[in-house]
Amino acid sequence: MRLSHKLFGGILIGALLSFSAFRQAVKASDTLTTKATVGLLDGPEPDGPNDIWDPYDPDDPYPGDPADPDNKGTGSVGQLTLDYVSNLRFGSHEIRNGGLTATALNTHAMAQITDGRGNGAGWTLQLRPDYLVGEQTGSVIGDGYLYLGSIMIRKPSTNVSSAPNVKATRIPLGQWENIVTAPVNSGKSVWTIGFNQVESSPTTLVINDLSGLKADHYVGSLSWSLTNAPT
């Protein structure tokens, strides 16, 4: 009994395979479906830092920034890298009653990100502007914020990926903010994120209250973080 069941199954499968091998006539009005396939793999692990590109035209090499002349990039190597971030210079200003809005002197301020992964997982660029501290007096500026202004996101002409999104441009001193996020399947390959490029919406440092501050040269760290997923 068991043997006959196995034999019957074999005959049935053979019949089905034989039936499917016959060609079917196709009429002009019929619709058939075929498939196109492609496999995507991570590229080879880079053996050095990525090239830095002009934030005004990422098909051209980075020309440098007179306000940030010694910045050669981060030197990061990998599949997802933060290649370049600017030091921002806001000049010198007199202490007066009230607050201060200082515009950045940089002509080519930017961040550059390269995503060479094949999975299209997306990424997030975060920024925290720390309190500014006087180098001689130790006075602290904590009541204010960094305003990035209009952020110009560009890519080389060979990049066909969808663009990442601007999330925040006003960042209180001492706080992390997500400034640019690439959703899943976007932000691949090279992207320049330009600051201080729009005259009507520049990058500025806003200090809400100057009272009690002493004349000094104030310095605050800009902490940048690139995470490997959108948030």
TrEMBL record:
| Keywords, alphabetical | Signal
Signal peptide range equals 1-25
Taking every annotated instance into account, which residue ranges of this chain make up the domain WxL?
Answer: 29-230
Q: Where is this region: Disordered?
A: 38-76
Superkingdom of this protein's organism: Bacteria
Under what name is this protein listed? Extracellular protein
Identify the taxonomic lineage of the organism of origin: Bacteria, Bacillati, Bacillota, Bacilli, Lactobacillales
